[in-house]
């Protein structure tokens, strides 16, 4: 009987998948397919208990960019936002997912944010329009992020039934919704196969600043470039 039952912890398996990102504009497969997130939500109740991450979760500001670009965290996690640039940043997320504004903070300092509910948060800097990142808070520990070859590995998955969900930054929501499906994980069936995602070839869409206005052109005298003494 499948139901929501799981095998013992020693019988957990490693689930794999291969992602192919196809450009909507010309139906050509992209040459790289990193940062696709796939996760498994158990069907039915489970008594499994999972510890939180052992290492601090960080979205670092360095060279006027966020590292990593995509970060997946368990719901309830606190994420650190250290500023490793020699100038000010103002990290915010006001459009979807977790809404916050960390205000202006200087080089060498850190701000923390608790991601207390599931969702996708698009992260920006109010000073540097080119900076963007995504944090995905999940209430399931069974997830993987694809590498450049489109390979995904989800370790330590107990056998059972799951709903597979997928996210990719430039894929339309209806495309991602249509990819949801139930999967049955067993020792002999631990592959999700090839996942084909139709997505835009464009990079991150243009966005407004935290006031809902266009960004002003950067100048050497702006706070964004002020050196920290």
Protein described:
This protein has 2 domains: 9-50 and 144-199, Sandwich (Immunoglobulin-like), CATH 2.60.40.10; 57-137, Sandwich (Immunoglobulin-like), CATH 2.60.40.420. With 229 residues, it is mainly β. It has 1 helix and 17 strands. The model is unreliable at 1-10 (pLDDT under 50).
Summarize the structure.
The chain is mainly β and 229 residues long. The protein is built from one helix and 17 strands. It folds into two domains: 98 residues, Immunoglobulin-like (Sandwich), CATH 2.60.40.10; 81 residues, Immunoglobulin-like.
What tags apply to this protein structure?
5-stranded mixed beta sheet, mainly beta, Immunoglobulin-like, 17 strands, 4-stranded antiparallel beta sheet
CATH fold naming of the largest domain? Immunoglobulin-like
CATH class assignment of the largest domain: Mainly Beta
CATH architecture of the largest domain: Sandwich
The end-to-end span amounts to: 66 Å
- The ordered H/E elements are EEEEEEEEEEEEEEEHEE
Helix content: under 10%
Number of domains: 2
- Which class of secondary structure composition applies to the elements? mainly beta
Number of helices: 1
As a percent range, the share of strand residues is 35-45%
Biggest sheet, open or closed, and with what strands and sense? 5 strands, mixed
Look at the structure and name the CATH superfamily of the largest domain: Immunoglobulins
General shape: globular
Total number of β-strand segments? Answer: 17
Output the strand order for the largest sheet.
6-12-11-8-9
């Amino acid at each position: 009987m499948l139901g929501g039952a799981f095998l013992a912890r020693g019988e957990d398996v490693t689930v794999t998948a291969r992602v192919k990102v196809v450009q909507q504009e010309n139906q050509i497969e992209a040459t790289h397919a990193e940062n696709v997130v796939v996760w498994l939500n158990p069907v039915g109740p489970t008594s499994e208990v999972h510890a939180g991450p052992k290492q601090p979760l960080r979205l670092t500001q360095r060279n006027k960019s966020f590292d990593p670009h995509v970060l997946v965290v368990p719901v309830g996690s606190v994420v650190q936002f250290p500023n490793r640039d020699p100038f000010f940043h103002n990290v915010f997320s006001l459009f979807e997912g977790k809404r916050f504004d960390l205000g202006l903070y200087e080089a060498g300092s850190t701000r923390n944010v608790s991601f207390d509910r599931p969702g996708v948060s698009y992260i920006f800097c109010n000073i540097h329009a080119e900076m963007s990142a995504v944090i995905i808070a999940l209430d399931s520990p069974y997830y993987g992020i694809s590498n450049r070859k489109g390979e995904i590995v989800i370790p330590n998955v107990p056998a059972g039934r799951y709903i597979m969900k997928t996210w990719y930054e430039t894929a339309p929501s209806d495309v991602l919704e249509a990819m949801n499906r139930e999967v049955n994980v067993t020792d002999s069936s631990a592959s999700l196969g090839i996942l084909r995602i139709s997505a835009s070839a464009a990079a991150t869409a243009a966005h407004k600043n935290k006031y809902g206005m266009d960004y002003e052109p950067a100048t050497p005298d702006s706070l964004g470039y002020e050196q920290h003494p």
